[in-house]
Amino acid sequence: MSTTNNALITIKHRGKKLLWPAHDTELQRVNDYVSDLTVMLSHVDRFDLAVQAGGACGVWPLALSNKFKTVITFEPEKLNYQCLQSNVFGVDNILAYESALSSRIGTGALKLGESHNAGTYYLSEGQAVSVVTLDSFDLPACDFIQLDIEGGEAAALLGALNTLEKFKPVVVLECKRLPHCPGAEIESRALLESLGYVEVGRVHNDVIFKSL
How many structural domains is the chain composed of? Predict the structure, then answer.
């Protein structure tokens, strides 16, 4: 590990140097969970386009870029996005947006849930950020959606209803108990089930849904 400035450091992950927020210790601990993609992608039939939100510093988008023709990732937090841009630089099939996925288009605010975990930002009050819907991108394809956005999954799904109904992608949601939104998993699950999705797998905190 080496220091680049007061806000950023460089770390190594699987032999690759990555730019990283200096305040973070916890997100680094779960970088190896990216190997869970083997289980997640076993349910995917096509590999044209993947959407990933909660891009953080780019570990998940990088892994997905080895499997899909195009990866679109969303990360609203300024420092995380700076790291993400640096870490995916030169990977031509990753498109990164400094925005949060939600049910509306406009602006929102971010709050950090855990001071030493750069992966725990959620929409609340604090840092002003851009907010977009997935449907507003009018995607040409969508085969896989992975959302790790700290309880904002239901809102992001509401903003992706047309995409879900049109392409029926495999959907992976991080589902864990969060003090600021205790009913998040119930809302997300109910919405997906109303669209004909069922749970087909679970790995760590991630639940895999597929339209059958």
Answer: 1
